[in-house]
Specification:
Nucleoside Triphosphate Pyrophosphohydrolase, four-stranded mixed β-sheet, 15% helix
C-alpha cells in the first residue's frame, strides 16, 4: 500500500445563524456529502492563500482569513488504488469582505455545472432536492456541485463529513457503509517534490525560559536554533506528534496550551540528506506548549540525528542566537 499525504484547508463562515457549506460532486472526496468549503493546498501554496482561493472557486465569495482554530489529521483508504491518504485538515475562521453578504443573496460563481440551492437562504428549504429526511437528489459533476447557507438545525438533517459535524458541534457519526467515494483524488506525487507537514512548539517553563534545539550538520538550516518539533508520522495527530518530538529532541514532557498559527516554507532547491536538490514545501503549525516540571535538555537517540543539541534560554538569550525563521517569528511574537 502507498502511504500518501496532503494538507487541506477548510473555513467556517457565518452569516448570522447560517453557516456556509458545500456539497461534493462526483469529482469530490465524498460525492453527495456536505462539508465546509475548502480544498487541498497546492504545491508551494500558502495555506491562507489556498483558503481564499478555495472559497472563491467553490462559492464565488471573497473572504478574509482569520484565526487558525484547529488542525486534525485523518486517514482515508482507497482500496482500488491500494492507497492510504493522510490529510492534515487546517480549520480557519473566515470573514466575508465588506458588502459580500447581503440578506437573501446566494453565493454565486460556482464553476462547471454546479447547481445552487433553490430558495432564499434561511427559508427552511433543505439543499438540493432533499426532503425532511435529508436524502439527497442526484449528485452533479465537478468537485463541488451545490453550495448554500444552512442553520445548524438544517445542517443536522443532511449528511455531513465527520470533520464538518465536529466543527459545527453536531453529532459526529462515521459515514455510512457504501457511501460513494471518489477515486484517488490527486495525481501521483512528483518525484522531485516534497511536502512536509510539521508541528512545532514555542515551549516554555514556569520561569519563562524557552526550549530550543540546534539543527544538526547535513540538514537544511544546519547550525540554526529551531523550535522543538518536526514532521508528523502517517496517521499521527499534530499535537501528539509535537509532544513526541519534544521528548525525543529535548527530553521534556509538556502540554499543549493553544495553537498559534501556520507558517509556510517553499525552497525550490533544498539540499538535505537525499544528496540532491528537491523542491521542498513545508507547512508548519506552531503551538504554545508549557513544560510544568523542566529538566536538563537532552537529545535522545530517537530524535533521528537531525538535532545536535537542545537547551533552555531566556528570551533575551534566545534572541542573540542564530535562529531559524519560524523560531525568530515565534519568539518575537512572544514578547508582545
Amino acid at each position: 500500500m502507498d502511504f500518501l499525504r496532503r494538507v487541506g484547508v477548510f473555513g467556517v463562515l457565518w452569516d448570522s445563524d447560517r453557516v456556509l457549506v458545500v456539497r461534493d460532486g462526483v469529482g469530490g472526496e465524498f460525492p453527495g456529502i456536505w462539508r465546509l468549503p475548502g480544498d487541498a493546498v497546492a504545491h508551494a501554496e500558502h495555506p491562507e492563500r489556498a483558503m481564499v482561493r478555495a472559497v472563491a472557486e467553490q462559492t464565488g465569495l471573497t473572504v478574509v482569513v482569520g484565526r487558525l482554530r484547529t488542525v486534525v489529521a485523518d486517514v482515508v483508504t482507497y482500496p482500488e488504488g491500494d492507497v492510504a491518504l493522510h490529510t492534515d485538515r487546517l480549520l480557519f475562521e473566515l470573514a466575508a469582505q465588506h458588502g459580500a453578504l447581503r440578506d437573501g443573496v446566494q453565493p454565486h460563481g460556482v464553476p462547471g455545472d454546479a447547481v445552487l440551492r433553490e430558495g432564499a437562504p434561511g427559508d427552511g428549504v433543505l439543499p438540493g432536492d432533499a426532503s425532511g429526511d435529508g436524502v439527497m437528489g442526484d449528485v452533479g459533476g465537478g468537485a463541488v456541485d451545490r453550495v448554500c447557507w444552512l442553520t445548524l438545525a438544517e445542517a443536522a438533517r443532511v449528511p455531513l463529513t465527520p470533520f464538518t459535524a465536529g466543527v459545527l458541534g453536531l453529532p459526529v457519526t462515521p459515514l455510512a457503509p457504501g457511501t460513494p467515494q471518489a477515486r484517488v483524488p490527486f495525481s501521483p506525487p512528483h518525484p522531485d517534490r516534497r511536502l512536509r507537514f510539521g508541528a512545532y512548539g514555542l515551549v516554555t517553563d514556569p520561569a519563562g525560559r524557552i526550549l530550543l534545539t540546534e539543527i544538526a550538520a547535513g540538514y537544511p538550516g544546519a547550525g540554526l536554533w529551531h523550535l522543538p518539533g518536526g514532521g508528523t508520522d502517517h496517521g499521527e495527530q499534530p499535537a501528539t506528534g509535537l509532544l513526541r518530538e519534544l521528548v525525543e529532541e529535548g527530553g521534556q514532557r509538556g502540554r499543549v496550551e493553544e495553537i498559534l498559527g501556520v507558517n509556510n516554507l517553499h525552497n525550490p532547491a533544498a539540499l538535505g540528506p537525499e544528496g540532491r536538490p528537491l523542491d521542498w514545501h513545508g507547512v508548519r503549525v506552531t503551538y504554545r506548549v508549557l513544560v510544568d516540571t523542566p529538566s536538563d535538555a537532552v537529545v535522545t537517540e530517537s530524535a533521528g540525528g537531525s538535532t545536535a543539541r537542545a537547551g533552555w534560554f531566556t528570551r533575551e538569550q534566545a534572541l542573540d542566537l542564530p535562529l531559524s525563521d519560524i523560531a525568530a517569528l515565534a519568539i518575537g511574537q512572544s514578547g508582545r
